[in-house]
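Q: Focus on the chain.
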Amino acid sequence: MKKKIIIFDLADTLLELEPSPQKTIRRYFKKKYNIDLNENNIRKSLIFLSNIFHYSSVKIKKNESKKEFYLNYNNHLLNMIGVSHVCNPEEIYQQILSQKSHWVKKEGVSK
């Protein structure tokens, strides 16, 4: 029997957010706290945490649940990048929401 369904993992595989969360976080810390974080370290931390805390837009539908998930996620992120004493998870959550990021094809992905 032939398979008739193909499932693609789009988020951070074929597509990426623009501006990226790491760019948004780096700019925020530079502007608000005059702290120049390494964007690559933020990106590595985000990847690491995404492998531990799996976000599912299928399972997490309510805005309240989404916020709760990301506040926990951001708490761990801030600890990993060493700035939890400077900023709280809510600030990062609000900053990323305010960016109105959109999905774009990753470099190297053809039409």
Observations:
- The beta strands are 15-18, 102-105.
- The first strand starts at residue 15 and ends at 18.
- The chain is about 50% helix and 5% strand.
- The helical segments are 21-33, 39-52, 63-80, 89-98.
